[in-house]
């Protein structure tokens, strides 16, 4: 081998690690901020990655993801958002309620933010309008926290003669005040008495159900909340233990043994979240990317639970149901 060729090979070999590092650094990074927990979100992450794939991105191949989880503790979100911003991310994907997106918005006004949240992003001050968000924030507004009056009405249809309905709500959730106001307004319109209990810990959950038992409530509305989603099996178990017909926000509650749920398909919302995140990675401007809204809502009824509770489901409700679990 000639000396010049040998030197060329040595120089080329020396630059290979540098080239590999440069390629790795060039891979865009998604910061993923969630108020939920990773254990509770595996199937939702699968849906999010499916949405990314529809947009041409695969984790570990042409995009990386940095995850941060608040595990239902909303007060941890600002620090987690700031930490992600310091990791040179290309886009910040937020999920698990409005608190995640509000924390992200406080952490950066420059990095694009793509949300998946249950409350109104306009009234929350996150976007100027649904059609033209106007800033660095856009995403999927599933509006589930605005469905409490509808859930209360469905619960009344289920048990029309109930005198007192319990309402479980998490006061640390940013939309909680609006949720409670809407529930109270709907209850007055229906001439329905309610008793409200707050909870954000397991101890407070136990105390809330002690209150429901003391007040002798006849049915239960569980308000939409990330912490409640994470503790759904515990909440469903407490409701069944008191023989309370209850309504929840997502199908997952009915699958866990809850009597009835009304809301959107949350897995599909995560898929759309992934699709929108991919669009922003490709250069779409969040200010001009309209906020998506759900077009389909699901009523799910668990007949096995209704039989265990001795609750008869009317033919009308069965006709309205999108899914019946037997």
What does this protein structure show overall?
- This protein has helices spanning 3-26, 42-54, 77-85, 98-107, 148-158, 176-190, 202-215, 226-230, 232-241, 251-255, 266-281, 303-309, 315-320; strands at residues 29-34, 64-69, 91-95, 113-117, 137-141, 164-169, 193-198, 219-222, 246-248, 260-263, 298-302, 323-325.
- It has 326 residues and is of the alpha/beta class.
- The chain folds into two domains: 3-143 and 266-288, 3-Layer(aba) Sandwich (Rossmann fold); 145-263 and 298-325, 3-Layer(aba) Sandwich (Rossmann fold).
- The chain is elongated and about 60 Å long.
- 42% of the residues are buried.
- Mean pLDDT is 91; it is low at 1-24.
SSE topology sketch:
Layout: H1 3-26, E1 29-34, H2 42-54, E2 64-69, H3 77-85, E3 91-95, H4 98-107, E4 113-117, E5 137-141, H5 148-158, E6 164-169, H6 176-190, E7 193-198, H7 202-215, E8 219-222, H8 226-230, H9 232-241, E9 246-248, H10 251-255, E10 260-263, H11 266-281, E11 298-302, H12 303-309, H13 315-320, E12 323-325
Helix pairs in contact: 2-11, 3-4, 5-6
CATH fold assignment of the largest domain: Rossmann fold
Give me the secondary-structure category.
Answer: alpha/beta
Number of helices: 13
What pattern of helices and strands is seen along the backbone? HEHEHEHEEHEHEHEHHEHEHEHHE
Give a short account of the largest sheet: 7 strands, mixed
> Strand portion, in percent?
15-25%
CATH class of the largest domain: Alpha Beta
Regarding quaternary structure, what we see is single chain
* Count of distinct strands: 12
Shape: elongated
Number of domains: 2
Q: Provide the residue-averaged pLDDT.
A: 91
Contiguous low-pLDDT stretches (5 residues minimum) are 1-24
Q: Termini separation (Å)?
A: 77 Å
* Helix content class: 40-55%
Q: Radius of gyration, Cα only, in angstroms?
A: 23 Å
Spatial strand arrangement across the major sheet: 7-6-8-9-10-11-12
Considering the protein shown, what is the CATH homologous superfamily of the largest domain?
Response regulator
State the CATH architecture of the largest domain.
Answer: 3-Layer(aba) Sandwich
């Amino acid at each position: 081998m000639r000396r010049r060729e040998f030197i060329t090979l040595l120089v080329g070999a020396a630059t290979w690690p540098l080239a590999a590092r440069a390629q790795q650094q060039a891979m865009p990074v998604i910061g993923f901020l969630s108020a939920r927990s990773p254990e509770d979100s595996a199937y939702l992450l699968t849906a999010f990655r499916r949405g990314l794939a529809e947009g041409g991105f695969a984790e570990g191949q042409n995009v990386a993801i940095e995850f941060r989880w608040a595990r239902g503790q909303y007060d941890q979100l600002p620090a987690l958002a700031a930490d992600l911003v310091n990791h040179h991310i290309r886009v910040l994907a937020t999920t698990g309620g409005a608190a995640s997106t509000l924390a992200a918005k406080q952490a950066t006004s420059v990095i694009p933010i793509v949300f998946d949240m249950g409350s109104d992003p306009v009234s929350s001050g996150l976007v100027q309008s649904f059609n033209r968000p106007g800033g660095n924030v856009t995403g999927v507004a599933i509006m589930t926290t605005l469905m409490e009056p509808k859930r209360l009405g469905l619960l009344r249809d289920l048990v029309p003669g109930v005198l007192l309905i319990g309402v479980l709500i998490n006061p640390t959730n940013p939309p909680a005040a609006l949720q409670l106001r809407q529930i109270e307004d709907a209850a007055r319109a229906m001439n329905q008495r309610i008793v409200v209990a707050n909870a954000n810990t397991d101890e407070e959950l136990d105390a809330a159900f002690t209150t429901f038992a003391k007040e002798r409530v006849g049915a239960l509305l569980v308000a939409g909340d990330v912490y409640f989603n994470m503790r759904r099996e515990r909440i469903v178990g407490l409701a069944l233990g008191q023989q309370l017909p209850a309504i929840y926000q997502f199908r997952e509650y009915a699958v866990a043994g809850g009597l009835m749920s009304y809301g959107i398909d949350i897995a599909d919302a995560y898929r759309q979240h992934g699709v929108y995140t991919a669009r922003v990675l490709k250069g779409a401007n969040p200010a001009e990317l309209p906020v998506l809204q759900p077009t389909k809502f699901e009523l799910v009824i668990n007949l096995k639970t209704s039989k265990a509770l001795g609750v008869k489901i009317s033919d009308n409700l069965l006709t309205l149901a999108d899914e019946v679990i037997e």
